[in-house]
Amino acid sequence: MIKTDILIIGAGPTGLFAVFEAGLLKLKCHLIDALPQIGGQLAEIYPKKPIYDIPGFPEVLAGELVDNLMEQCKQFQPGFTLGERAETIEKLDDGSFVVTTNKGTKHNAPVVAIAGGLGSFEPRKPLIHNIEEFEDKGVEYFIKNPEIYRDKKVVIAGGGDSALDWSIFLSNVASEVTLIHRRNEFRGALDSVEKVQELKNQGKINLVTPAEVIGILGAREVKGVVVSQAEHIQKEFEIECDHFIPLFGLAPKLGPIADWGLEIEKNAIKVNNSLDYQTNIPGIFAIGDVNTYPGKLKLILCGFHEATLMCQAAYQIINPGKKYVLKYTTVSGVDGFDGSRKEAPKQVVKAIE
Question: I need a labelling partner for 240 at 20 to 30 A (CA). Which of 31, 198, 227, 346 fits?
Fold first, then answer.
């Protein structure tokens, strides 16, 4: 079982900044995220999108902001459980919580902070009746490690940037790549569309449009797919493959957290914003876009503010009755909250030397 001071559900910008604020209070954090990488929707959906309302940054790309937040908090050595969804929560006799993921990983902490953005991102799955039987047996909705497709036959379905980009990338890894899209037109970047067409002409990508995968072949693992192609007449045919990767995007959902007994309003978690963003269950907080309260603004900078106040309240829960004095991070070598001496974060020390 993984033990920590604050268990953060969601490794997006708000969750990452909470690690930094908790670290200033000498509290350790562990983060759970259903996505295979940190950054939430900033990293998964629009890493190259510029953001203009982060204080001190007239303009910063979403992916760069994630990198900067990770650089800021890594000195406090957070732990990560990625590619797993927080599934259930249990309160123990000592008042702490045990959160178990969909893959059975257990985490124990006295404080839980839900920073899930718009919720957990669930892959949009094609309407194939038996597709769940082949998940992790040749059907993947995320590409975590491209090397597993080395010298394999791969079928990718989708018409957006992810489908195009991964088709291009895997054309140099897999023995055979087939891209299937239900339309002749793609929704991705023009240069990616042109690159796919070029690779098709070179024989490095098989392009099948307009068509869709309607079935999966195999017993215990994927052996091929059944494709329906609409031209002048409807026809079906089979394609032999080792992996089927439907890349139809991600749908944000509150997910299993909705069944934790929290007070929900319009798919968001109600919190007490007059104090510390705690939910109706003591010890469980919700920060960032996942929460709601009167006057709520779904902005990253608001999530940073909420994370800061949450960490202050978490300190009191973890250290009941213990007094501390708020110190500015511009002060180097201040007294720690346990009476010891501590150094300011490295980037702050460097700035004031």
Answer: 198
CB within 8 Å of 276: residues ≥ 6 apart? 285, 309, 310, 312, 313
Provide the domain count of the chain.
2
Query: In this structure, is residue 157 part of a structural domain?
Result: yes
Quick one: angle between helices 161-170 and 190-201, nearest 10?
40
Domain finish residue from 248, 279, 313: 248
The residue among 227, 248, 269 that closes a domain is 248
For 328, residues 6+ apart whose C-beta sits below 8 A from its C-beta are none
Poorest-pLDDT segment among 39-43, 161-165, 166-170, 301-305? 39-43
Residue 345 lies in a domain: no
CB 22 within 8 A of CB 28: yes
**Which residues are bridge partners to 109 per DSSP?**
97
Q: Are residues 83 and 179 both part of a single domain?
A: no
State the average pLDDT over residues 139-154.
90
- What is the share, in percent, of the chain residues with pLDDT greater than 70? 87
DSSP letter for each residue of 122-160: EEPPP--TTGGGGBTTTB-SS-S-GGGGTT-EEEEE-SS
Provide the pLDDT for residue 332.
Answer: 38
Range of the structural domain that residue 38 is part of: 2-122+251-322
Run of H or E including 192: helix 190-201
Q: Is the dihedral of CA 183, 188, 190, 193 positive or negative?
A: negative
Residue in this structure with the two tokens 């295979």, named with its chain if needed: 36
Integer Cα distance of 288 and 278 in angstroms = 12
Q: Is 19 helix (H, G, I), strand (E, B) or coil?
A: helix
351 confidence band (pLDDT: 50, 70, 90)? very low
Side-chain-side CA neighbours of residue 193 (13 Å) = 11
Which CATH number belongs to the domain containing residue 183 in this structure? 3.50.50.60
Same domain for 81 and 33, yes or no, is yes
